[in-house]
Specification:
Layout lengths: L2 H12 L5 H55 L28 E4 L30 E4 L1 H4 E6 L5 E2 L27 E7 L5 E4 L7 E4 L2 E2 L2 E2 L11 E6 L2 E10 L3 E4 L20 E4 H4 E12 L7 E9 L2 E7 L1 E11 L5 E4 L1 H6 L29 E11 L43 E9 L6
Parallel strand pairs: 1-11
Antiparallel strand pairs: 1-2, 3-4, 3-5, 5-14, 6-7, 7-12, 8-9, 10-11, 10-13, 11-12, 14-15, 15-16, 17-18, 17-19, 19-20
Length: 447
């Protein structure tokens, strides 16, 4: 082989490949780049997961607050009547039997037959208090329109939550699909909906009540007539009202079947400053109850999700998931005008003649009887506290997470591990949390 060929081969040998050191450097750089890309991807994925969870948390909280606010503003609403009327004096237009105190019901009316009790009342509302004689009227008072239940972690509530089958009772408190969350408060509100109807009455005893819907430009401005024989009617003025059963002739003529002293209560369609109306108490009087219950996680066997439910007239509807705590605080004005913030159990325990202002004139409480739960008519505000979580596990470290919090104590609690993040092994996962508060001044307690 010639020297020239040997020289050429040597030249090719010098540039034929990478050295071992060059290869190791390249692999190291590539590995570092890959680790950086994977880390960046993981951080981006975690950020997106957290942002989605926070967005869901925010949306759930805002919706829950808005929905509860709407019902709190309606608490005790009875058209232009109300559930307290502290210091109200009955006028000549209203008659002595119909003071400005909530509404009255006839014993043989609401307490018997269809619609004899209201939903979520344990089947007891509508049965007259002890001491009311058969055939007399008795008050459906503030405790029937706004009823709170202060519940402890062990599952007991003060006063006791109505139990039994729907629509009379609520689910029991325990760990299981469809059962109420232990320690979460319950609130039941009642109010009248709809526009009602103007009416006229004749001279008969009992009188025939003819409903007169308002027609403007050929269009009905009031609710469609919806009475059926046996329904309870609610006749309201701006200072009181009465519930009675009716028979129906045609579509707009009601005949009271249990109207007390009809000759003393015969308002026309409009009397002075009063705009009297008839409502369908059986169909248009609403009972709304808020409570927490567990819902089985469809994606993870054995896992339960605490969920906020709104139950209307015995039918429960899911509002939002991931509500771990629900607590209510009531702003109550005592007889001496001082304002106190109490739980439901404290409102009931402090309902006495010392703290409660005198009842409205003509309440009709017989000698020796007391107005039940009188402080409930002094509730001036209702404050709802809800602790919401992100429902899904966001996988953050404890120091990066919001702690869980309850107004009943022990206050802030640091999550310890994924299996016991909520203090309940069946609700697993590390979740971010936020407290939402709804505060509403009740507007249906006084004129």
């Amino acid at each position: 082989m010639s020297a020239k060929a040997i020289q050429s081969g040597a030249q090719y040998s010098d540039v034929a490949g990478f050295s071992l050191i060059e290869l190791m450097v390249a692999l190291t750089l590539g590995l570092l780049l890959s680790v950086g890309m994977v880390t960046l991807f993981g951080a981006t994925s975690t950020t997106n997961k957290v942002q989605d969870a926070l967005a869901r948390l925010q949306e759930n909280g805002r919706y829950a607050v808005t929905r509860i606010n709407d019902d709190l503003r309606m608490a005790g609403a009875q058209y232009c009547g109300n559930a307290s009327n502290q210091g109200w004096t009955s006028s000549a237009n209203d008659g002595p039997q119909y003071p400005g105190v909530a509404i009255t019901a006839n014993v043989q009316g609401i307490s018997s037959g269809a619609g004899g009790s209201l939903p979520d009342s344990g089947g007891l509302l509508g049965i007259p208090p002890s001491g009311w004689s058969a055939g007399s009227t008795y008050p459906i008072g503030p405790a029937d329109f706004t009823r709170g239940y202060d519940c402890a972690a062990g599952g007991t509530c003060t006063p006791a939550v109505p139990g039994g089958a729907s629509p009379d009772g609520l689910p029991a408190a325990d760990e299981g699909d469809g059962l109420r969350v232990r320690g979460a408060d319950v609130l039941t509100l009642r109010y009248q909906t709809g526009t009602g109807w103007n009416f006229t009455v004749d001279a008969a005893v009992p009188p025939a009540i003819t409903l007169v819907p308002a027609i403007v430009g050929g269009q009905a401005m009031d609710d469609p007539l919806n009475f059926a024989a046996g329904d309870n009617a609610l006749l309201l003025t701006c200072g009181g009202g009465q519930i009675f059963k009716v028979g129906v002739s045609g579509t707009n003529v009601l005949t009271p079947t249990a109207l007390q002293n009809p000759a003393a209560y015969r308002p026309a369609a409009s009397v002075g400053s009063f705009d009297v109306r008839v409502f369908n108490f059986t169909r248009d009087f609403v009972t709304v109850t808020y409570y927490l219950a567990y819902k089985a996680d469809p994606d993870r066997a054995g896992r339960l999700i605490p969920t906020l439910y709104r139950r209307e007239n015995g039918t429960a509807n899911e509002l939002v998931q991931g509500v771990e705590r629900l607590d209510f605080v009531y702003g109550v004005q005592y007889r001496d005008a001082t304002l106190h913030y109490l739980t439901a159990s404290q409102v009931s325990a402090n309902s006495n003649a010392i703290n409660c202002p005198p009842p409205s004139p003509g309440l009709g409480i017989a000698a020796g009887l007391t107005e039940p739960e009188c402080l409930w008519r002094q509730v001036k505000s209702i404050e709802a506290h809800m602790l919401l979580d992100t429902v899904n596990d966001v996988g953050l470290d404890p120091e990066d997470m919001a702690y869980r919090y309850t107004i009943d104590g022990p206050g802030m609690v640091v999550p310890t591990n994924a299996a016991a993040d909520m203090g309940n092994g069946m609700i697993t996962g590390r979740m971010m949390r936020r407290e939402f508060i709804a505060l509403v001044a009740t507007r249906n307690s006084n004129h």
